[in-house]
Each structure stands twice: as structure tokens, then as C-alpha cells.
């Protein structure tokens, strides 16, 4: 994922947490913050050490990034997203992660069209 598509600074994470809205299911919490005059969405990931070792945490982050890349055309480009993985995400395959994230996105009404 390109650097321009990532949220890295703590200040940006805190802004999304404080001003954004949260939506959740059992596996993920998604915070959404609308930002005007932004040409593409940005994504921040949070995976706790409680979910497993570094290999497992990085695998979960790869799955989330890949899902958002596949949904890129259906996502609103003026938003910042912070995704927090919960415990059940550690035992999920890529397709289960994708299905769960699409479910949360539908709850949040951030998908432009619900064809996927």
C-alpha cells in the first residue's frame, strides 16, 4: 500500500478516534473520519499483541490492507479509516477477513455500491 494511503502519525490516529464515528462487528472496529479536500482514502491499522506473535499480527495487517485495496473503487475517497482487529480475527483466513470487513463497511455505509 502506498505511503500516501497510510495513517502513521499518532496525531492523525487520535483525530480519527476523537472526531470520527465507530462501527463494529465481532472481529473488527472501524473508525471513519470524513476529511474534505482529500484525493484518496487513508487507512490506519491497530493489531494488539494479545492477538499473537509478530508473524500473526503482520498477517492480519496484510489481509486488511489487501481487502481495502480490493475495495478501493467502492470506498469514499474523502475518509480516513482506522481498523482495530479483535481477538477472533487471529484465527480467520483471508476470505473470512474480507467478508467480515465488507460487513462492517456495510454497517458504516461507506461502500459506494454493494455489489461485492
UniProtKB/TrEMBL annotation:
GO terms for cellular component: ribonuclease P complex. The keyword tRNA processing applies. SUPFAM superfamilies: Ribosomal protein S5 domain 2-like. Keywords: Endonuclease, Hydrolase, Nuclease, RNA-binding, tRNA processing. Transmembrane segments: none annotated. InterPro entries: Ribosomal_Su5_D2-typ_SF, Ribsml_uS5_D2-typ_fold_subgr, RNase_P. It catalyses: Endonucleolytic cleavage of RNA, removing 5'-extranucleotides from tRNA precursor. One of its GO terms (molecular function) is 3'-tRNA processing endoribonuclease activity. It comes from the Bacteria. One of its GO terms (biological process) is tRNA 5'-leader removal. The keyword Cell wall biogenesis/degradation does not apply. Its EC number is 3.1.26.5. Consists of a catalytic RNA component (M1 or rnpB) and a protein subunit. HAMAP family: RNase_P (MF_00227). PANTHER family: RIBONUCLEASE P PROTEIN COMPONENT. Belongs to the RnpA family. RNaseP catalyzes the removal of the 5'-leader sequence from pre-tRNA to produce the mature 5'-terminus. It can also cleave other RNA substrates such as 4.5S RNA. The protein component plays an auxiliary but essential role in vivo by binding to the 5'-leader sequence and broadening the substrate specificity of the ribozyme. NCBIfam families: rnpA. This is Ribonuclease P protein component. The gene is rnpA.
